[in-house]
Amino acid sequence: MVKITVKINKNGGAAVVEAHGIKGTGCDALLNALTRELGTIVEDTPTAEYYEAEPGEMVLESGGW
Amino acid sequence: MSKNRVIKAVYKSESALRQALEDACAEFGIVYEYHPEAVNLNGDRGDVRAEKANYIIRRKYLGSAANDMGFEKQADGSFDMIASDFDMGKGGYAGGSKNAKIAFVEWRYQYNQVQEYAWQNGFTVSEVETADGCVELALERAW
């Protein structure tokens, strides 16, 4: 089972993408693919922040809109 | 007179962008323009600005102090968004509040793009509205 949660702020701002239970490069590839699709604001947020929140849980916040 | 702001390389799917603009038209009763060849945007006083766009929402639909906003196609097929600092909630007069119609187009683009991604990659999607003004989409697939 692959599950991705995307939280979109209706007032604008960053979309938050979370994938649970996915490890390693598969997680990176999946999140990066979705992040590429969502895009990032080059001007306002030059780099997306990527970090491991908990063991086995990867959280990525893409740039603001 | 508010200067325009260019948000580069954000909008990569023309179909999701067009659908977001259609959604905004349905939501607010406004219209957008499409120009195969980009045309100039107008400022809040009706002045012609140097910036050009292919997809445009004219200022009369955005608010009395708004500039036109638009999306200009780039060489790689993505679209830059062009809107005024004021309409993006930047600067002292804006008070940090983004134009509601622009905010709508932004979140609907994200929404449509996620839906498109899910469909193309075999995910089912469920959605809930949260108390903090967000839409939460859960994408799931068994493989």
Q: Could you tell me the radius of gyration of chain B in angstroms?
A: 16 Å
Q: Biggest chain pair contact, residues each? A: A-B, 25 and 35 residues
Q: What is the global morphology of chain A? A: flat
> What level of helicity do the residues of chain A show?
10-25%
The coarse overall form of chain B would be globular
Helix content of chain B: 25-40%
- Note the run of SSEs of chain B as H and E: EHEEHEEHEE
End-to-end separation of chain A in angstroms reads 30 Å
Strand residues, percent of chain A: 35-45%
How big is the Rg of chain A?
Answer: 12 Å
How many domain modules of chain B?
1
Outline the low-pLDDT stretches of chain B: none
Query: If strands are numbered along the chain, what order do they take across the biggest sheet of chain A?
Result: 1-2-4-3
DSSP strand tally of chain A: 4
End-to-end separation of chain B in angstroms reads: 54 Å
Mean pLDDT of chain B: 87
* Residue-averaged pLDDT of chain A: 53
Quick one: biggest sheet of chain A?
4 strands, antiparallel
Quantity of strands of chain B, as a count: 7
Number of domains of chain A: 1
Poorly predicted runs of chain A are 21-26, 40-65
Secondary-structure blueprint of this entry?
The complex is a heterodimer of chains A (about 60) and B (about 140).
Chain A lengths: L1 E8 L6 E5 L3 H15 L10 E6 L2 E5 L4
Antiparallel strand pairs in A: 1-2, 2-4, 3-4
Chain B lengths: L3 E8 L2 H15 L4 E10 L5 E10 L1 H4 L6 E5 L5 E6 L15 H21 L3 E6 L4 E8 L2
Antiparallel strand pairs in B: 1-5, 2-3, 3-4, 4-5, 6-7
Commentary on this structure:
- The complex is a heterodimer of chains A (65) and B (143).
- Chain A has 65 residues and is α+β, with helices and mostly antiparallel strands.
- Helix content of chain A is 23%, strand content 37%.
- Chain A has a four-stranded antiparallel β-sheet, with helices on one face.
- By secondary structure, chain B is of the alpha+beta class.
- Chain B has one domain (4-140).
- Chain B has helices at residues 14-28, 59-62, 100-120, and strands spanning 4-11, 33-42, 48-57, 69-73, 79-84, 124-129, 134-141.
- Chain B is globular, with a radius of gyration of 16 Å.
- The A-B interface holds A 1-12, 15, 33-34, 36-44, 65 and B 6-13, 78, 98, 102-104, 106-107, 109-111, 113-114, 116-117, 123, 130, 133-143.
- Strand 1 (2-9) of chain A pairs antiparallel with strand 7 (134-141) of chain B.
